[in-house]
Design brief:
Number of strands: 4
Distance between the termini: 11 Å
Number of domains: 1
Protein name: DUF7691 domain-containing protein
Domain DUF7691: 1-201
Strand content: 5-15%
Order of helices and strands: EHHHHHEHHEHHE
Radius of gyration: 18 Å
Oligomer: single chain
InterPro entries: DUF7691 (IPR056108)
Strand order of the largest sheet: 2-1-4-3
Largest sheet: 4 strands, antiparallel
Structural class: alpha+beta
Length: 202
């Protein structure tokens, strides 16, 4: 079974602030502009909704109002997808072609490539097993993780230090290409003050 990453450049603090904001105007905009997408999601998760999971809009409303959330942990995925929609709305989608799809331990392989280049401040595996912002309930799928602006800046400095030392360990071409994609994400973040990276694995 394959997975994929969705990567967004955004102001993590501002997007997190939408959780519990009670912004009904935002909900109205999403319902008006993305109603077809919400309906498509409901069709995709029809069987789960029949078993009590919230609809896409219900989950989105719960996230924006900070609850209430279903007590059934099997329904928590809907709140994660609702937060992903907020990231889509407030952020910019970044190239994920080398992570969509991926199989097996590819995230670990890429992390090994980052480490080989001296980059330890960030990890693509963090997008797999990280936790959603509070108070959203934990769910395995979709996975979620963040690279803060500070982590991105530190990772770029680590990369530059490796370049200054002239240390370029041998890596498989596909690993090099993917690591450079990650560095590209961080450079995008560095060019936008206060911006970081949010990633979802599904």
């Amino acid at each position: 079974m394959s997975s994929g990453l969705s990567i967004y450049l955004l102001d993590l603090t501002k997007t997190r602030a939408l959780i519990g904001s009670g912004d009904d105007q935002l909900l109205d905009v999403i319902r008006a502009e993305f109603g077809d997408h919400l309906a498509a999601d409901d069709r995709y998760f029809e069987s789960e909704i029949e078993q009590g999971a919230p609809t896409a809009y219900e989950a989105l409303r719960a996230v924006v109002h900070g609850g209430p959330f279903s007590e059934d942990k099997n329904h928590a995925f809907q709140y994660a997808y609702a937060y992903k929609r907020l990231c889509e709305l407030t952020g910019h989608f970044l190239d994920n072609s080398n992570f969509c799809p991926f199989r097996g331990d590819w995230l670990s392989v890429v992390d090994q490539g980052l480490t080989a280049l001296g980059i330890t401040a960030v990890s693509v595996a963090s997008f797999d097993l990280g936790s959603l912002p509070d108070p959203l309930p934990w769910t395995y799928t979709p996975g979620y993780g963040e690279w803060t602006p500070e982590q991105c800046a530190q990772a770029l400095e680590q990369f530059e230090e490796t370049k200054r030392k002239g240390h370029a360990p041998p890596l498989e071409p596909e690993v090099v290409e993917t690591v450079m994609d990650c560095i590209g994400w961080m450079r995008h973040a560095a060019s936008r003050p206060g911006h970081g990276i949010a990633g979802f694995r599904s």
